[in-house]
Amino acid sequence: MTSSAVVSRFASALVDIVTSSNAGIEPEVAILQLRSFAAAVQSTPELKTILASPAVSSARKRLVIRRIGEALGLERIILNFILVLSDRGRVAALPEMINSFELLLDERLGFLRAEVSSASELTDEQRDRLSVELARLAGSQVRMWYTVDPDLIGGVTATVGSRVYDGSVRGQLATLRQRLAVS
Question: Which conformational region is residue 161 in: left (phi greater than 0), alpha (psi within -120 to 50 degrees), or beta?
C-alpha cells in the first residue's frame, strides 16, 4: 500500500510535466494512455505479478514495460513516468495515481468535478443538458463523472465541489416527508 502523500507527489509531478508548455501531449491523451496501461496490467495476472515481484530484476521489468508501451503507442512522457514508478517499486499504485492525477489536473485546468448519480444510464443528450446546467450553476467548467445508483428510484443527484444538487425521487420524497412532519 502506497501512502497518499507519495501518490500525490507522483501525480503532482506528472501534472507539472503534462501542463508545461513543451509537454507535447494533451492532458486528455495522458489520462487515456495511463488508463490503457493500467487496464493492460490489471487484465493480465502474470503481468501484475512480474511488475510487483522483487524477484524480477529492474531491467526485466523495464523491458516488459517498454514492450507494453510500444504495443499501446504510449507517448515518451507517459512511458518514462511508468518506468520511474517501476524503478521506485510503485507500479501497483498506478490506479491511485491516475485518480490523483485527474483530480489535480482538473484543478490546475480550472475544472470543477461533478459526480452525478442516476437511477439508470443517462443518454448523451441528458448528459449534455446536465453538464450545461451544472456548469451554469457552478459558474465554472465542470468535468462530469457518472455512476448508476438503482437506489435512487428515479432522477439524479450531483455533487459539485461541496454542493449537492438532489433531483432524485428519493430526495424529493424525503423533502416532502420533512414538510409534512413540520405541518
Answer: left
Whole-angstrom Cα distance, residue 136 to residue 93?
36
Output the pLDDT for position 183: 64
Burial code (b: 16+ CB inside 10 Å, e: under 16) for 62-92 equals eebbeebbeebebbebbbebbbebbeeebbe
Using CA atoms, how far apart are residues 47 and 56, in angstroms rounded to an integer? Answer: 11
Q: Is the dihedral of CA 145, 52, 5, 105 positive or negative?
A: negative
Global pTM value = 0.73
Kindly state whether residues 102 and 118 are assigned to the same domain. no
Q: Which of 67, 89, 107 is the last residue of a domain?
A: 107
How many other CB atoms are there within 10 angstroms of residue 40's CB atom?
15
